[in-house]
Amino acid sequence: MNFDNITIILCRTSHPGNIGSTARAMQTMGFKKLCLVGPKIFPSAEATALAANAKEVLDNTKTCQNIEAALVNQHFVIGFTARKRELTQPHVNLKDLPGEIVKLKEKQNIAILFGNETNGLSNEEIKFCNMLCYIDSESNAASLNLAQAVQICCYELKMALKQKQNSLIANVNTKSFVTNDRLNGFYEHLESTLDELGFLKKIQAERLMQRLRLLFNRTQLDEEELNILRGILSEIQKKIK
C-alpha cells in the first residue's frame, strides 16, 4: 500500500533515540514520511543507531522550527492525545480512525501529530488539528513510549486500510480541502475583522477564536468556500473603513 500522503510529525522530541526508534517503527509498516518540530537534539548518532534499517526514513526526515511550518500543504491533521481537552475536536478511538482516513480523497495530505514524551501535545499544537485520536489503554497507565505509540498507530492504519479500502473506495470524498496554511490565513483574516468590528473586546477573544477554529475544522472548507468567506470578510472591512 502507498502511504505517501501520510506524514508522521513528532513535536518537541526530547530524546534523539525516540526519533530513531520511530523511524524504524514507521519503516516496518511501510510509512516513509517523518517530520520533526523543534527536536531537542537532531541529527544524532543515537537516532541513527536506533533507526537500524530505517536509514532512508531518517535521512529524508524534515525538520521545522514550529508547527505552522510543519503543516504547510497538509489538508487534514490528526493529533494523538490520551486525554480529551476542554473545547476540543472529536476524540476518536484508534480503531475508528482508518475509516475516517479512507473517506478522504487519496490526494489529500494527512498529518499525524505526536507530542513531547513527557507532556504530549500542547494546546497550541492541538488547535491545528481537525481530529484527535487515542490508543485504548488502561486508564491508570495511558502513557506509551513514543515509538510504541507510532508503531501501534501505523500498524492499525496499515491493517485496517488494507482490509477496508476496497469496500470503502466508492465512498471516498472527492472534495478538495484547503491546506492548513491557507486555513490559518483565513483564521487570521477572521480575527482581524472581528477585532476591527470591536466584537472581540466584548467577549473572551481567545476562547471565541478557539471555538471558531473548531467549527471550521469540522466543516473542512474547500477552496471555493474559503474564497467566499474571505470575500465576505474583505467586504466587511471595506464597509468599516
Helix fraction, binned, reads 40-55%
Total number of beta strands: 7
Helix-strand pattern: EHEHHEHEEHEHEHHHH
* CATH architecture call of the largest domain: 3-Layer(aba) Sandwich
Kindly report the name of the CATH homologous superfamily of the largest domain: SPOUT methyltransferase, trefoil knot domain
Q: Give me the CATH fold name of the largest domain.
A: Alpha/beta knot
The main sheet comes to: 7 strands, parallel
Q: What top-tier CATH class of the largest domain fits best?
A: Alpha Beta
Structural class: alpha/beta
Q: What count of domains describes the coordinates?
A: 2
Protein architecture, described:
With 241 residues, the chain is an alpha/beta fold. It folds into 2 domains: 166 residues, Alpha/beta knot (3-Layer(aba) Sandwich), CATH 3.40.1280.10; 61 residues, Helicase, Ruva Protein, domain 3, CATH 1.10.8.590. Helix content is 47%, strand content 13%. The protein has 10 helices and 7 strands. It has a 7-stranded parallel sheet. Strand 1, helix 1 and strand 2 form a beta-alpha-beta unit. Helix 1 runs parallel beside helix 7 and helix 8 packs parallel to helix 10. The longest helix has 23 residues. The N and C termini lie far apart (54 Å).
